[in-house]
Amino acid sequence: MEVVPPPKMPQPMADPDNINPVIAPAAQDLLLADTDYLTNAINTVETMSEGELIEARLQISEDVIESINSSGRYQMRIFWLSIPLMLATAYLVYLTSYVSPEPFAECESTTQPGVFETCTEQEACDLRGSSRQSKIYFDIDCWPKEFNIVCEQKYKRSIGLMITLFLNTILGSIGLHLCDVFGRQFGWYMSLALVIVGSCISFFVPDYIGKMIGLGISLPANITYAILLTVMINENTTAKTKLRSVTVAFFFLGFCFGCISINLFAYISTEPWFLIGVTLVIFLIFGIPCLFLFKETPAFKINILDVQGYIKIIDEIASINRKDPRLDAKYSKRIDCLNLIIERMKEISKEKKSKNIVERHP
User: Fold this and answer.
1) CA distances from 158 to 119, 120, 142, 155, 164 (A)
2) For 330, which DSSP code?
3) How far apart are CA 350 and CA 259, in angstroms?
4) 134 forms bridges with which residues in the sheet?
5) What DSSP string describes 7-28?
6) Vertex 211 angle, CA 227 and 196, to 5°
7) Using N-to-C axis directions, what is the helix angle for 242-268 and 220-235, rounded to 10°?
8) Three-class secondary structure of residue 139 per DSSP
9) What does the alpha-carbon distance between residue 333 and residue 326 come to, in Å, rounded to a whole number?
10) Residue 82: which of 200, 255, 208 has the closest Cα?
């Protein structure tokens, strides 16, 4: 006798609201590892060395940045504004060769009168007042030509160049130090101020050395802008962000275009006021938006042990990136862990200060 199997009963459809997502084993391991790391950091924060605290702080702050999209709209804003600013820094580097070049010199031949041969500036100067003629000239409009800085006055060119390089090095170093003390946002105001003040001095001071001092004040912006832009990318992204790997290449590309374009502008005019004016206008066009569009970096707030300032910056960047960090289940635990780490670091700092005072005044 044939046995007929009972009909299969239709299974009820699952409620979408009660479906538990299936997490891949690798993702589960990563989630557990992250949770274990935070738990371990919270439990051992009192026994961590200062180096371990700094490492844990960096790891957690990067995890927070990753949760708000480390290559989002805000990071791309920094990236695309950086390229024309790197173009402008190339202008500053090449300005010196246009506004204060070395002269050309020609001396009359000793064997062929009336025929001029290339010679040094000093040789041409020594022939002045003799029967042989000499020429000293500049092939472009420049400050040494305007103020006749040749022969007995040529030492001023050396002094002007030395002052420019000295100011570039000193002001650049001081500027970068101030960015570490007062923040990256302060650096944008300072860099733009250097360009504006230096350009105005170069425009209006009716003296060669004074104009070179103005150029020396402008030049450090080449250093501060280039470093700040790199720092802004690094401190608003993480090691996993692909944007970091392409930033340097595009920065060099922007700098190269700057080298090309300043030479193209020189075809229009080599007057120093024109080339400096072009540089100033470009910095104003692309530098002023940085004052309003760029935030302080989260890393700086963490470095000065300001957790509340860090949270505020994270919220502002998250808003631009259209992400809510609080949707991440581990967000609150990360912030709690950061608070504990920062408090412990403040205690260590106080202990060091107290120890130093005791050692100085036994």
Assistant:
1) 19, 16, 15, 5, 10
2) T
3) 50
4) 107
5) PPPPPPPPPGGGPPPPPPHHHH
6) 45
7) 150
8) coil
9) 10
10) 255
Q: Are 236 and 298 in contact (CB under 8 A)?
A: yes
- Give dist(CA 344, CA 46) in Å, integer: 7
User: What are the residues whose beta carbons fall under 8 Å from the beta carbon of 300, sequence distance 6 or more?
Assistant: 183, 184, 235
Q: Which two tokens stand for residue 159?
A: 């002094």
Per-residue pLDDT of the chain (362 residues), as tens digits, is 445 555 544 445 444 444 444 444 444 444 445 567 788 888 888 888 888 888 888 888 888 998 888 888 999 999 998 888 888 888 888 888 899 999 999 998 888 888 889 999 999 999 887 888 889 999 889 999 999 999 889 999 999 999 999 999 999 999 999 999 999 999 999 999 999 999 999 999 999 999 999 999 999 988 898 889 889 998 998 888 888 888 888 888 888 888 888 888 888 988 999 999 988 998 899 889 988 889 999 999 998 989 899 999 999 999 999 998 888 888 888 888 888 888 988 888 888 877 776 666 55
CB 134 within 8 A of CB 108: yes
Spacing of C-alpha 4 from chain mean position: 80
Strand ranges, E, within the chain: 104-108, 116-118, 134-137
Residue type, 246: V
Token pair for residue 11?
A: 């299974």
